[in-house]
Predict the structure.
Amino acid sequence: MAETIPNAIRRVRAIFERRPASAKHADATAIARWDHDLRVISVDGNGTTIVTDMPTELGGTGDQVTPGWLMRAGLAACLATRIAMEAAERGVLLKHLEVNADSRSDLRGLLRMTDELGQPVSPAPVQVQLTVRASAENLSDDLLRAMIQDCHRASPVAAAIESNIPIVLQIDLQ
């Protein structure tokens, strides 16, 4: 039988308090392999597979999610998971939890185009918004709102996006 969420969190927290260095680890590698056209197959170490493609307007088939959608899904799922963890640890009985991640982008950046002033357009989304819809049986709306805000600050995917972490690019030509 699986360990309960609060017990698992308490156990891991106790380990990290005794040995903080054990909290630092390499994250699971995501491997993305080009299949054909604009289709890419990403695989994790357990063999879980996600297929991406681009919309038909950009030459893809449009029948798979895009890499940008995966970023938004990861952002939303990470926050929802963090909220569920916190609720379980605090004994909060969630009745409903849904996180929507929306963004606005300028596709000229993806195509390495410039704006009206001749400046390069960024390929990054220009705006990202998370909308959390939640309710709990045993927590006031104000306390639930505060808990969700705390969880957002502890969401690794949101923190990675907001902190603008440097990416090291290594190229191995074969």
User: Anything to note?
Assistant: The mean pLDDT is 96. The chain is about 35% helix and 20% strand. Residues 27-65 form one domain. The first strand starts at residue 31 and ends at 36.
